[in-house]
Amino acid sequence: MTTQTDNQNADKQSMMALKKHGNTILTIVLVVLAAYFGWQYYQNHYAKIDTVAADAYTNISNTNEQLIMTAQNSQLDEAAKKKLVDEENKLFAQIDDLVAKHGDTTYAWQGLMMKARHQVDNNDLKGAIASLQEASKIELDDGLTAMTKIRLARVMLADGDTESAFATANEALPQAFEASRQELLGDIYLAKNEVDNAKKAYTSAWEALRARQENRAVLSLKLQSLGVVVQPIEPPAAVVATVNTATTDAAQATDEATKQPADGQADTKTPQTSNQ
């Protein structure tokens, strides 16, 4: 009788606990199921899409490398040049297809940057501007966006559109790109015959490089061509130490190599023969 009563009490307690915590348990179960099926959906959908985009870009990259190698051949005849143009158009079509299907990925951005490079090489600056503008709209890492905008402004400048180049160069960019931005502004000011502003921009770029102890030979030449005395940027102490160590090691190696023949000669003296 006691056992039956105990069982009934246990059942009542279990029911009360279920009523009290039932919603919590149900919520946990639903969360676990949602996470599981969400992961399955990602693996079957987005992961597969990423793989497809990666494979497409790999094919594009391989084709691009082949085209670059072919274009470097200065002995191409007219038929070969025509074939090269046809292959390049096919490459552009592949890139456009990648962008159309996976336009929010890094692969699409890389494809558009690649396309813009070919267009610049072909002196199709307006085509390159369109490609770079499309690339700049892809929401990616701030660094990639900054690289795109700086390159876009440079192509605009090359195309003679100094105002658009100036506006693009003045858009907000990460501090890490300040030196490149200031150098670009200097180029734009110089194109507009604003020499004093060009000097200021180039100097700002040089000081930004000094802050991170980085030399840029071309910028130094730009400043010197405008009559600005450039203060050398000292390399980091670690680099100096590495160079000094390498120099010392090389000197020691040379010294040892110089001594080696004499040592060898001493070790190989002709043995004296005894008179018998």
Describe the 3D structure.
The chain has 276 residues and is mainly alpha-helical. It is 79% helix and 0% strand. The protein is built from 11 helices and no strands. Helix 6 packs parallel to helix 8 and helix 9 packs antiparallel against helix 10. Residues 29-48, 238-243 and 257-276 have low confidence and may be disordered. Belongs to the YfgM family. It is a single-pass type II membrane protein. It holds the Pfam family TPR_21.
Structure in a nutshell:
The protein is mostly helical. It has helices at 2-44, 46-71, 78-102, 106-121, 125-136, 142-158, 162-169, 178-191, 195-211, 217-225, 237-267.
Largest sheet: none
SS-derived structural category:
mainly alpha
Sum up the overall morphology in one term. globular
Low-confidence stretches: 29-48, 238-243, 257-276
Radius of gyration: 34 Å
- Separation of the first and last Cα atoms: 127 Å
Number of strands: 0
> What share of the residues lie within helices?
over 70%
Compute the average pLDDT: 79
Task: Give the helix tally.
Answer: 11
Order of helices and strands: HHHHHHHHHHH
Strand content: under 5%
